[in-house]
């Protein structure tokens, strides 16, 4: 069975204004992500990685171009519709874990389902299942400050999956992790990809992360410079 494109970015332009200065963050960028892919976006600082993720995630809007996610052009959505899109269709994982310190691990994972008005017992069972999937079910009643950085990032991944999103966006998710925790995190991402057919789009500088991806886009100066496989890591990190 052939895969379908779950994300299509067409000729996207994004310009930021700083006083009298204009900065073109994305310059007619296009790419496609297929359902069940683990895609990496790799490029130097300022290349447009975070801007691209923010636009796909509905956190920012392009000045021109189209962004189609699950058959829906999100650039045409109202703010209310974008709120629903972000809640149900997208999971976010950032380099700062963004866990709520006063909630338990379980409650942090439950939070998106609470916002989606999921029944209490259903959200508890799904949260426990997701914590088991990332190997943290025994820490469900701990607060985030009792966890290591790697464990907190795994909680953030479980939370991102809470509402069964179409895509999970990860912005430099291993920036605060050492090599061993990075390997553990990528093993979990591959496991979730296999078991849930979950689609991931990961912006990264990390060669270990790139090695675990099914497709790698090289980005520079707001444009895609090439598409690479994991076996072409050498070319990739010379861009």
Explain what the structure shows.
This protein has helices at residues 49-56, 79-88, 105-115, 120-133, 149-160, 179-196, 207-211, 233-236, and strands at 5-18, 21-34, 38-42, 64-69, 72-73, 90-94, 167-171, 199-204, 215-220, 223-228. By secondary structure, it is an alpha/beta fold. The model has no long low-confidence stretch (mean pLDDT 93).
Task: Give the helix/strand layout.
Elements (H helix, E strand, L loop, with lengths): L4 E14 L2 E14 L3 E5 L6 H8 L7 E6 L2 E2 L5 H10 L1 E5 L10 H11 L4 H14 L15 H12 L6 E5 L7 H18 L2 E6 L2 H5 L3 E6 L2 E6 L4 H4 L3
Parallel strand pairs: 3-8, 3-9, 6-7, 7-8
Antiparallel strand pairs: 1-2, 1-4, 4-5, 9-10
State the total count of DSSP E strands: 10
Major beta sheet summary: 6 strands, mixed
Query: Helix tally?
Result: 8
Overall morphology: globular
Low-pLDDT runs of 5+ residues are none
Please report the distance between the alpha carbons of the first and last residues: 34 Å
What is the element string, with H for helices and E for strands? Answer: EEEHEEHEHHHEHEHEEH
Backbone structural class:
alpha/beta
Overall pLDDT metric: 93
Which percent bin holds the helix content? Answer: 25-40%
What is the strand content? 25-35%
- In spatial order, strands of the major sheet run 6-7-8-3-9-10
Radius of gyration equals: 18 Å
């Amino acid at each position: 069975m052939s895969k379908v494109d779950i994300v299509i970015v067409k000729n996207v332009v994004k310009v930021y204004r700083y006083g009298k200065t204009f900065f073109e963050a994305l310059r007619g960028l296009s790419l496609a992500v297929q359902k069940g892919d683990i895609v990496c976006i790799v490029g130097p600082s300022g290349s447009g990685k975070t801007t691209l993720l923010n636009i796909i995630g509905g956190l920012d809007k392009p000045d021109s171009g189209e962004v189609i996610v699950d058959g829906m052009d999100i650039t045409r959505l109202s703010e209310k519709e974008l709120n629903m899109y972000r809640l149900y269709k997208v999971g976010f994982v950032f380099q700062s874990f963004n866990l709520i310190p006063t909630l338990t691990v379980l409650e942090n994972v439950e939070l998106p389902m609470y916002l989606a008005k999921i029944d209490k017992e259903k959200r508890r069972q799904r949260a426990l299942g997701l914590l088991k999937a990332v190997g943290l079910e025994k820490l469900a009643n701990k607060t985030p400050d009792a966890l290591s950085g790697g464990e907190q990032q795994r909680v953030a991944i479980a939370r991102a999956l809470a509402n069964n999103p179409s895509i999970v966006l990860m912005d430099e998710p291993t920036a605060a992790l050492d090599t061993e925790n990075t390997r553990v995190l990528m093993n979990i991402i591959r496991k979730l990809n296999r078991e849930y057919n979950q689609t991931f789009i990961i912006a990264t500088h990390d060669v270990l992360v790139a090695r675990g991806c099914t497709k790698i886009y090289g980005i520079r100066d707001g444009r895609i410079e090439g598409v690479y496989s994991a076996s072409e890591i050498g070319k990739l990190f010379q861009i």
